[in-house]
Design brief:
It is a single chain. The relative contact order is 0.16. This protein is an all-alpha fold and 61 residues long.
C-alpha cells in the first residue's frame, strides 16, 4: 500500500474491488549479518529507509 497511498489520496488511482481485499500486508526487513562491522553505506541506506518509508507505513495504520 505504501507504494500507491499518495496516488490513491490524490485520486490518480482508484481502488477496485475493495470489498474483496483481505487487507494483506507485507513486512519490510533490512537484514545484515554483523552490526559491529556494518559498512557505512548500509547504515546510510537503512537510515534512509527509516526516514522515508517509515512515515508512509505509519500513515497507513
Amino acid at each position: 500500500m505504501f507504494h500507491v497511498a499518495e496516488d490513491l489520496k490524490a485520486g490518480r488511482l482508484v481502488a477496485l474491488l475493495a470489498d474483496f481485499n483481505p487487507g494483506d500486508t507485507e513486512e519490510i526487513h533490512a537484514i545484515f549479518n554483523n552490526q559491529r562491522y556494518m559498512p557505512q553505506r548500509v547504515r546510510v541506506f537503512i537510515d534512509f529507509l527509516v526516514e522515508r518509508v517509515g512515515p508512509l507505513l505509519r500513515s497507513l495504520d
